[in-house]
Design goal:
Layout: H1 7-16, H2 23-35, H3 38-54, E1 56-57, E2 64-65, H4 71-74, E3 79-86, H5 89-98, E4 103-107, H6 125-134, E5 139-142, H7 148-161, E6 167-170, H8 186-194, E7 197-198
Parallel strand pairs: 3-4, 3-5, 5-6
Antiparallel strand pairs: 1-2, 6-7
Helix pairs in contact: 1-2, 5-8
This protein binds zinc ion.
Protein name: Recombination protein RecR
Family: Belongs to the RecR family.
Keywords: DNA damage, DNA recombination, DNA repair, Metal-binding, Zinc, Zinc-finger
Length: about 200
């Protein structure tokens, strides 16, 4: 499609910027979008527009939400004594899909990574400490990824929270060290949650 200019070339270029999409795949996707019905192609454009314009972070837990407060934080049937701390909204999604945990979450929006210049101030740690201070949590479950940085982040936070009368636990190592929560399967996550240990 290298001799194409204008709209088609622009679409190929944009699609090619997506992770895991090479030039060939971008061209295939572009041709696909030209072949399907107009409404089907525009539904994709509309979904992208909506996700960027309507989705934001929950003011309480920093999960993705279309309202100021996310559906999980608004759900009065959740156990408000347990708080599970994760790195990213997609980790929350993985844990939620396992169906084992019924408490609340806190999304850090990253992990402490000194080599990348990411310090604690760039995460939502201050808001987390505030929640623990003002909430009625009895257990904080550290569910950062089992990587060097995830472990470091977890340790950093548990030190900060040590002044509060809460039990701090860590997911059991059902998940192989170095693997990422996002890719762990449902059973592994359920095992890691039920076998969590005191930190
Ligand atoms: Zn929330």
């Amino acid at each position: 499609m290298s001799d194409q200019t204008g709209a088609v070339a622009e679409l190929v270029e944009q699609l090619g910027r997506l992770p895991g999409i090479g030039r060939k795949s971008a061209e295939r996707l572009a041709f696909h979008l030209l072949r399907v019905s107009e409404s089907e192609a525009l539904a994709l454009a509309e979904a992208i527009r909506r996700v960027r314009q309507d989705v934001r972070y929950c003011e309480t837990c920093f999960n993705l939400s279309e309202a100021d407060t996310c559906a999980l934080c608004s759900d009065t049937s959740r156990d408000t004594t347990k708080l599970c701390v994760v790195e990213q909204p997609r980790d929350l999604m993985s844990l939620e899909q396992s169906g084992v945990f019924k408490g609340l979450y806190h999304v850090l929006l990253g992990r402490v990574a000194p080599l990348e210049g990411i310090g604690p101030d760039q995460l939502t740690i201050e808001a987390l400490v505030d929640r623990v201070r003002t909430g009625n949590f009895t257990e904080i479950i550290m569910a950062t990824n089992p990587t060097v940085e995830g472990d470091g982040t977890s340790l950093y936070i548990s030190n900060l929270l040590s002044e509060f009368p809460v039990e701090i636990t860590r997911l059991a190592r059902g998940i192989t060290a170095g693997s990422v929560l996002e890719y762990a399967n449902r059973e592994m996550i359920a095992d890691a949650l039920t076998g969590r240990q005191k930190l």
